[in-house]
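Q: Hi! First time doing this. I have a protein sequence and I read that you can turn it into a structure. Is that right? Here it is:
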Amino acid sequence: MIRVAVIGGTGTTGRLVLEGLTAMRGATPLCAARHPDHRPAGARLPRHDDPGSRPGVPGVEYRRLDVLGDRRSALAALEGIDWAVVCLGPFEHLRARAQELCIEAGVHYLDVNDSIDARRDTVALDGPARAAGVRVITGCGLCPGISTMLLGALAGRADWPVESVTSDLIVGAGQPVGAASLTSMLLSLTGEVRARRAGTVVRVPATVDRSVRVGGIRTRYLVGYECPDIDVVQRIVPGVSEYSYRVCFEQLPGFAGDLVHRRSEYGRGWGIG
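A: Yes, that's right. Below is the predicted 3D structure, encoded as structure tokens:
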């Protein structure tokens, strides 16, 4: 059996991953978090000391692991683990701390990182990871992740040269939003975003484009955003010299949608398209 620790397993994304792992054969899931006793309202995961809380599903072990805390304690929490799935955030603050811990502990690593800088920090660890025999896989979420796969599909199907790519993401109404992902969104909504222009990554003024139709869907606004795909798009789709990424947040539930919308509208340096 492969022992898989979901780091950040008490969060919104982590709980979903942990629930999926409990249904997989050959995997023994474990929840690792700063506050392993934290149980958000509506959590359906069983505790290791309460195996009857979810009949038919083995109990999940909970361990305390603080990625940004004491290094020895964090390494000790990774003992006996084969793979770590990191669902923490925001990665703008974490950077490559979790990756470094896993490499030192000899634990294979996978994350849902959506930060350009954290991805670059991760790539810089290629040498140490190879020396330790540790696999490090970053950016397995929505963007990058699914968006990167779509770029690959574009490269395989386009029968004409592709010079410019714009990725537009519409967040669905049923999308769960946790504190880490919301914080990451707000940190990313600044006056500038990184885009690829004439083959080079540059900072450009961020915009809020109103009333845009995407795939037949009329949006109220699309916000200029950042995605690590910016660093790989030219390898996936040769010949691309322009890349931009925009997100529509209007379907986010209640306070989250309102908060992100207000930040994007009134954030310092924003231009209105």
